[in-house]
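In the current project phase, work has continued on tokenised descriptions of protein folds. One protein thus recorded appears below exactly as we store it.

——
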Amino acid sequence: MPLSRRAMLALPAILATPAARAQPGWPARPVRMVVPFAAGGSTDVSARLLVPKMSEILGQSVVIENRAGAGGTLGSDAVAKSPPDGSAFVMGTVSTHVLAVGLYRERLPYDPVRDFAAVAPTVLVPICITVHPSLGVSTLAQFIALLKANPGKYSYGTGGAGGSAHIAAVGFLNAIGAQAEHVPYRGSAPMLNDLLAGQVAMGFDTPALIAQHHNSGALRCLAIATDQHSSLMPGVPTATEAGLPGYKAYSWFGVFAPAGTPAPIVAKMNEAVRGAVTDPAIRARLVELELPPIEAGSPADFSAFLRSELDLWVPLVKASGATAD
């Protein structure tokens, strides 16, 4: 792997390349940023926080276009098939550019490596492991012991089959050598309702969804599945600290252009994305919303990261049996 996930998150911002500085005339008109999900979701929220600063840096408007459908693949495909002239970009995610490869085994209309030019990542959202208090466990180690002693007895909920939370759960169960029943929901909100009611024993989702209920005692978040703690639940350990080293689970967002977009345009947009992500006011708001920003380097770094993510997650998607075909 050319770049480790840990190193990816710690990459320093780099100076604009000479090619980026020497790209005159672009953008001469507003740039379209496709968000392949509905307005109001975390991908959309993060994009709307970033694009004003991106517009300022570019000296031209960046206009968000929500184009939802087919798990984010509809809008992503539209950008993949757009002219490679810097007129259109997409705010891709781990779902659209990694998990979809395993889910849409016959019908995925694009290849995330071949059909896109990676520009820059924006945020990385952790997944947390949460249980209902009725299980009587207060640590991840106790929970793992309970699952291993009772194979198949307990159920876990996620916001949908094949989503990042589902694949996170599959990875967790594989890592500890345990079995549990998956209960997929049509979104995180109904999953949360059943988790609060004890209809499912455990849930996998983001700290932003869980924090209020963990802090009130209605639920127990046992671990955050990244190297960083949650600002909303600062007392919750990482999975490594909780005794499961190496286990990571998260979603990420990042900007992609159609393949064939000139390198100077990609580099200039990379500069704009990094400038927005590192802006102190924007960073503070992203952290407040539990959308931790990624300070990344070059387009090549992001491309290498994408390939490593495909190697990691696609086998887990296929092992889960989830499919969108």
Q: What stands out?
A: The chain has twelve helices and ten strands. The chain has two domains: 5-125+250-320, 128-224. The longest strand covers residues 116-126. The CA atoms of residues 152 and 180 lie 4 Å apart.
